[in-house]
Amino acid sequence: AQKVTQAQTEISVVEKEDVTLDCVYETRDTTYYLFWYKQPPSGELVFLIRRNSFDEQNEISGRYSWNFQKSTSSFNFTITASQVVDSAVYFCALSEAGTNAGKSTFGDGTTLTVKP
Amino acid sequence: EAQVTQNPRYLITVTGKKLTVTCSQNMNHEYMSWYRQDPGLGLRQIYYSMNVEVTDKGDVPEGYKVSRKEKRNFPLILESPSPNQTSLYFCASSLSFGSPGFFGPGTRLTVL
To answer: How far B6 CA lies from chain A's nearest CA (Å)?
Structure first.
């Protein structure tokens, strides 16, 4: 069965600090997709990034970067120079492509608070 | 504008009174899914649909039904709601199951 663990329930940082949100996943499939979503206080869910299991390249988008390591089954998310607007709940999610294609599993989320 | 719409946005009902939460997308997406969000539990998948007339159970399907008669619509049906179905519900759609999801605004349901 697929599983996603976000061990950090809550993180609080001061503006301009760097912060890393951890995500560890479990799957038996060789083909799968990993996602990060952001849920700001307004409640909507916003897609941030997708990675497939064959693409271990790290990605950087502005202040955001993602580190995907299959060897440790981790897909961590780093925000550099955090800002108050980054305060949100962040979810890591996994979708398998094999016999469970279509099933989607989310972590419990990490609530990030960035203080001015 | 590309969007996923859900109705109603808020609903307070009583135990046992059948209700339907509608979900509609205008992006011609094949994949649609329903989730419920409860404090501390993240999003849990209720049902998903890979295409028209193809639906399957997620992790928490008990007490829910869905149908996919048209590509754009994926209603969630609670035949006999119970208080433990009080939750925030999200509908999502995407090109395929491995594609980024577009989420609706959410429906906050309270069952008394």
So the answer is: 12
